[in-house]
Amino acid sequence: MDMESTSNKVLAYRHIKEPATEILRYINDRRKGIINSLMTRWSKFNRQCMGGIEPNAIYTIAGISGCGKSAFINSLETDLFDMNPHANFVVLSFTFEMLSSKQVGRKLSYRLKKTTSELYSGTGDVRAKLTDSDYLELVKESEKLEKYPIYYVDCPGTVEEIRNTIIDFYYKPEIKGKWLIIMLDHTLLTKGKNGEKERETLFSLQRLFMEFKKYGKNTIIQLSQMNREIEDKDRIMNQAFHFPVRRDIFGGDSVYQASDYVIVLHRPELLGIENGKYGLGNWPVENLIYMHFLKVREGEPKILVFENNLKYNSIEEYNPSNIKQIKENKNDN
After folding, report:
1. What is the pLDDT confidence band of residue 123, given thresholds at 50, 70 and 90?
2. CB neighbourhood size of 105 (10 A)
3. Does 266 have pLDDT greater than 80?
4. In sequence order, what E strands does 169-247 have?
């Protein structure tokens, strides 16, 4: 084999002294508070994720339809700015599943504690239509949202188009040098090349995101789907198999390889699992959302519990003592 004729490209290499110096600088900057994660409004999530959303990391959020994935990422978009007012970052959000205008509608729903049906006067009840004063309040909240440095991409594209869009955005004069948070809702809506299978497109997308997370100061938060196996009746009947696992995520191998965090949002009640019978621990399910951390690159897997407030497009932290009390009440009955 003529090795010289195969390729002229040489991959960069460096002595161990350089990365050692880099990690010491990073550790010292974290210690001094020069580098911080972006806090979310969920304190338990922050503790599980080294303080919140880290730079140069990939977060994958998966779940079945209706579990709260879109509400989670929608809330993050603005919460990160509210919780970290002095941080210098921007959000580029690929909203392939939903129009960006509807994303803003969900934010207004949460802020005004009105369902989107109420906001859009879609209840069919004339008495339930928004009043003039309600609408003025909406306008005020919308004007506040307009000040956030959030940019949307509504039109689904290929992996190459996503790459080109990120690069073009990254080098805008007003963006250059800032921490870039890339959000994608969701992975399976990425367009493939002609004849390309979904898994091949997903693999290419993960390679792209791994490339981006290594350069500059970028973070990727992507939503993904679950396989249908988690909805299998035999599995639902067996409590030992209730919890989501790696193979439940579509394209799990490539997603796991790329991601620093793999998180499944799960609402067992959507599958007809009875209250107090979720998993071998007999967890309650009524009005709850479970956050299963399947992969934590710098920590251990864990399960967090949230309260379902999806009618206002939000999830809230749940007190574990409340779960204990629910279990005690169930046993007493």
Report:
1. low
2. 18
3. yes
4. 179-185, 218-225
Q: Are 48 and 59 in contact (CB under 8 A)?
A: no
End-to-end CA distance of the chain: 76
Domains within the chain, CATH numbers bracketed: 42-332 (3.40.50.300)
Determine contact, residues 130/118, Cβ cutoff 8 Å: yes
Peptide bond into 242 cis (omega under 30): no
Among the listed residues 297, 123, 97, 269, the one whose alpha carbon sits nearest the alpha carbon of residue 183: 97
pLDDT exceeds cutoff 80 at 129: no
| 212-226 pLDDT per residue, tens | 998 888 999 999 989
Region 270-283: mean pLDDT is 92
b/e code 257-288 from CB counts within 10 Å (16+ = b): ebbbbbbbbbbbbebebebbbbbeeebbbeeb
pLDDT > 70: percent of the chain: 92
Q: Is a pLDDT exceeding 90 seen at residue 326?
A: no
* Token pair in block for residue 286: 């009524």
192 CB-side CA count, 13 A: 13
Which class for 146: exposed (0-12), middle (13-18), buried (19 or more C-beta within 10 A)? exposed
Name every residue whose Cβ is closer than 8 Å to that of residue 73 and which is 6 or more positions away in sequence: 61, 93, 183, 185, 221, 223
Instruction: Read off the amino acid at residue 174.
Output: E
Do residues 180 and 90 touch, judged by C-beta distance below 8 A? yes
The bridge status of strand 302-309 relative to strand 150-153 is unpaired
